[in-house]
Write a structure and sequence with these properties.
It contains five helices and no strands. The chain is mainly alpha-helical. The protein is globular and about 45 Å long. The relative contact order is 0.18.
Length: 112
Amino acid sequence: MAATITTYREFWPFYLEEHSKPATRLIHFIGTALVFAVLAAAIATRAWWLLLLMPVAGYGFAWYSHFFVEHNRPATFTYPFWSLFSDFRMFFVWLAGGLDAELRKHKIVARA
């Protein structure tokens, strides 16, 4: 990344570009879904130690996808809060069926 991003409006298209491969997005989706599953399990069982697994599930899957699928550096390292917010945003936009439209809007094309 050449220039520092100063607004979230600039960051969101960058974030989508960093997740251009469908496999990367799928692995992120699985990790984020596991975050919610772990949260639900912790609440249901009152086993609060399970909450420690939330970042392992979320970041573990995400970082794996960046290093071994997308072959780029996770945005979390440079923009931690925007990246976390965007991971949840991407998850819910995908669940709502709008991710393909969002990718087209920002002209994001899967890299080989």
